[in-house]
Hints:
By secondary structure, this protein is α+β, with helices and mostly antiparallel strands.
Amino acid sequence: MTDKYTALHEEHKKLGASFTDFGGWQMPLKYSSELAEHHAVRKNAGLFDLSHMGEVWVTGPDAAAFLDYALVGKISAVPVGKAKYSLICNEDGGIIDDLITYRRPAASDGTDVFLVVPNAGNADVVAAELSRRASGFDVKVDDASAATSLIAVQGPRAQELLLRLVPAVKHSLVTELKYYAAVEVPFLVGGAGLDLLLARTGYTGEDGFEIFVSNYDAPGLWQALVAIADDGELTPAGLASRDSLRLEAGMPLYGNELSLQGDPLAAGLGPVVALSKEGDFVGKAALTAKKEAGAGSTSGRRLVGLKGLGRRAGRAHYPVLKDGNAVGEVTSGQPSPTLGYPVAMAYVDVEFAEPGTALDVDLRGKAEPFEVVELPFYKRTR
Length: 382
């Protein structure tokens, strides 16, 4: 398969990035030190290229009803300007992807407009599945992923830095923007105004923003963000630090915590599934049956956080033990740069899922002590 490159690939090369494959894309793994990039996001701000993510527009008279059917959440209840985290599942309740859906102002003819943002490796699959599920609905599904870039600024200084590129009379658009909301904002790039969709969302556990921009304008925006920051204020950050940041924040990663073989209930995402909404949705019958059978609560396994009591970290696929017997498996794990001890997420048998439960992780033949803790591991001070 041919590697795919974002519109910012040359910018990353100029900064000396090390690249890795992610969902078929060549993405920056790190620029210098992944540890330094991690701490930069926690203390100041980090700059991320997320252009490998997908962008699928859903428009038309039936757009809201269609998304209620296609996704597990009640998307029709999302107010204009807001966003909702949801899942797209198959008929068996398996997770095809987790995604964010933004409700935008209605089109000129009054019909609804939504932007669905799936993950990189699943973008094509989600777009195709939405198109397939649209049969019988008066909607248009337009996959704009190939023409769209996504740039994120994450960290406690994110707002302060973005305001330097926004005209003073429009600062309130940024400062008053709530979490999981989006608005069109004029950015001063290359001496000109550029109206871009700005969302207050992120995957780091910090305050932050994600900016949707055309591939054509993406390099100019990236360069402008780099230029307005003084040394140490804004650090380009790669996938390695993004992974350690999201793990500390207890955020699931598709392919690790989420998969077709799993389900939302075991993943602790039961509240995301609107079983009570009117009408059918794909996977409703299967998920209803799973809930009635106690999936994730009284039967099967449940996703938990594990705090290491020693110095060694558990890694994905390492067995979780109780009295020497396998009772689960690690999905993500590494030393926490912020907290100073190993952390992991794991699926464990529900009888061992209560916080405070002592468990071990099999680290290549040696049992290392861990304790079940509430997620997230890290929560920012507001």
